[in-house]
Design a protein that fits this description.
Blueprint: E1 2-8, E2 15-23, E3 26-30, E4 34-48, E5 67-82, E6 86-92, E7 105-111, E8 120-126, E9 132-141, E10 145-154, E11 170-177
Antiparallel strand pairs: 1-2, 2-4, 3-4, 4-5, 5-6, 6-7, 7-8, 8-9, 9-10, 10-11
């Protein structure tokens, strides 16, 4: 993984930029009714802290940065149910590094619509930001290459304290390779 991460502070347009890079070794064990996976994100990683100011007074402190840096982030997921038909799942740091902490913690339901190649679609909520709803998919191509789009919608109203009104809806796409599949 590699890419640029940037933030612009809305009060004075101060910009913070970082070049991100990392690797993500991951292993998963799947049975018909239970799936469990784990891994590590390693590298020069940075992720947003979200909105640190929960209360907006007339003179709130202005943060110098809205992100954390780390070289290590654990990854975990758990599925209960038959993935071909219907399941519930939990994901920690599945879409990492992320521009919103809500995407790092997901709980939802999904279905593989009866297909046997691992295809599935999931929908759910971030349990850190209950106003965030996501839809994501896992689309294997010839059993090795995987495309993972993700759409996130928020129902939050934009806070009047911000000088620029920006939506918090997001789209991301992941591409990965599955080793050991035929």
């Amino acid at each position: 993984m590699f890419g640029n991460y940037s933030q612009v502070r809305q009060t004075d347009n101060a910009e913070h930029k970082t070049f991100l890079f990392g690797v993500n070794p991951y292993i998963k064990y799947d049975t018909k009714w239970i799936g469990i996976g784990g891994g590590l994100h390693l590298g020069n990683l940075e992720y947003t802290t979200g909105d640190l100011r929960k209360e907006f007074s007339s003179n709130p402190p202005i943060p110098t940065r809205g992100s954390f840096k780390t070289i290590l982030m654990p990854q975990f997921d758990l599925r209960v149910g038959v993935s071909r038909f219907f399941f519930g799942d939990f994901h920690l740091a599945d879409h990492f590094p992320v521009s919103t902490p809500g995407l790092a913690f997901q709980a939802g339901i999904g279905s593989g619509f009866g297909l046997e190649n691992g295809f599935n679609m999931r929908a759910g909520l971030s349990f850190l930001d209950l106003s965030a709803f996501y839809v994501t998919g896992y689309f294997p191509i010839e059993n090795r290459l995987v495309i993972e789009p993700l759409f996130l919608w928020t129902s939050k109203g934009m806070n009047d304290s911000y000088s620029v009104k920006l939506p918090e809806n997001q789209f991301s796409i992941g591409i990965s390779y599955r080793f050991g599949y035929k």
